[in-house]
Amino acid sequence: MLQETRLVAIKTLKLTEDLLTSVTKTRPQWARLVSAVDHRVDRALAILRPQAIADHRALLTSLRWPPPLSNLTSSSLDSRKSTEVPNPLFTMQGDLKQQYCENFLALCRLQELQRQRKSRQLEGHNREVALRQPLWAIEELVNPVSVASQRHFSKWIDKPEFIFALVYKITRDYVDSMDELLQPLVDEAMLTGYSCREEWISAMVASLSTYLAKEVFPLYVGQLEEESVTGIRSPARTSWLHLVDLMVSFDKRIKSLVEQSGILLSLQEDGTLRKISSLSVFCDRPDWVDLWAEIELADTLEKLKGEMDEEKNWTKKVQGPVLSNSDDYKCPAVSSSIIRCLSSLIDRCRSLPTVSLRSRFLRLAGTPVIKKFLDCLLLRCQEAEGLTALTDDDALIKVANSINAARYAESILKEWCEDVFFLEMGLDEGDEVGESIAEYSGSKVPIEDYGNGIFHEEIVKFEDFRTEWVEKISVVVLRGFDARCRDYMKNRRQWQEKSEEGWMVSKTLVGALDYLQGKMSVIEENLNRLDFAGIWRSLAAGMDRLIFNGILMNNVKFHEDGVERFGYDLEVLFGVFRAWCLRPEGFFPKVSDGLKLLKMEKKQLEGSLTGGEKWMKGNGIRHLSVAEVEKIGKNRVFTK
Length: 640
Known about the structure:
The protein is mainly alpha-helical. It is built from 27 helices and no strands.
């Protein structure tokens, strides 16, 4: 009888609300009348809702809800179902079941009425925040379960895995009744946008997060603060990391429970993820995110220190299926270790429910790992350079391995930053969290660069590092080549003589060519294919300038035999580079054009003195200036 009276009252208030909505739209001048009626309706609702909730709680007590948890032990938490404790929502029968369903329906209709009223009253404002509330009837189911569970939690404060196991077991064991029994009642009440499964799961997760925030994390924080004062290492850091592992694992299992209803969380906003994530505890405590990142960073760097200090990890190459492009990068094993640790940090932060928290965590825990690695690469290269100025093969190999490691890390970061996950965090860098992190890291990046992904700045640093040391290797080899061919460059008379008997190349050039082949062989064997291409191209350009300026622009007189000799020498030099390209002369543009001029007939070459650029274009001379062409032409001596 009481339930019928309540449903009639709710129906009357619903009709009143429909009328008020109509009047608000058609008679806005009656605002004071609508306000007076609203006041009376509010008074009625202030009586109805507490009564409905009180009756609902009484019915739950009659149903023996929550089910007893005292028979659950740590050893029984992994079992699929508890046969000793049946689900009261499925076992209730007769009048009790009818009363519960009617009361549940009344609560849902009251909530829908309240939502309709708020929607009208907040017209023109940000209504979504105010309108979206947890389902009252589900909250009434979860609250007593939460209270009963916390009696067990207090016994397991040092064994948090049991806490997570208990919450998951309760959530899983009763989720089917939400779909089968309660969801039809929510639909009948026309309470749109609510899933009983999702509401049950999110309420259980919220109760767990609240307990962690009030009881567990403050305990660990206190231990860490005591550790910083006394200097005595406590188990808090290990406990913190273990707790986060449990939270990440728990969230994955919870996510699968939600997705069984057909909800694709990957398409949902951060708000949905926050509701079903135990890691949402960090949303209200970003300082705990900072502390977590600090702990993760220290743990990661400690693991990597041994890896980076072990010299064999810098010489041993990644082999087999670990890296599909290992032949291209020739990366040392240490680079794989760095990426593995960084990937682990990224996987852990994926479970954080908001983009800003993920961005904050990665900037504080991930970026310093990359910086540490880059500093280590730079130090190794500087050590090699400081000992021998990169003149010996061991130093070249050491630098080559560092370049390979940088190339591999750079390629992985670029690949990651093409993913939406990283692009979102890069775009988030401009907000308040990003500003504080930029201040922390001591660097400022143009805001437009964040659209390239969160690791854009680190990618640029790897590129700069490679470019610098590839250029240094090129300069060292070029200097060595220059030092060994100085006699060749100074010998001006050889261009007026025939080649030595039995020699296809000038004797004074042989040592320089042998040096060049030896160094390039070492570099090619140890350096990745992409950066090696940069070295030989840079060397070709440098040698082109060296030979052009040292011989062709040095007022050397070329006779017929000298031109032939010069052609043979260049052909041998081009042969060194032919192993890496089909037309090496294309990478020696000035020398090639100079040789072409020297081989011209006297009458044709004389045209260069008056023809200017038109003559050069007609004769295929594209890389020299008019003055350079004239100088070479004047130094060509025709004896016939």
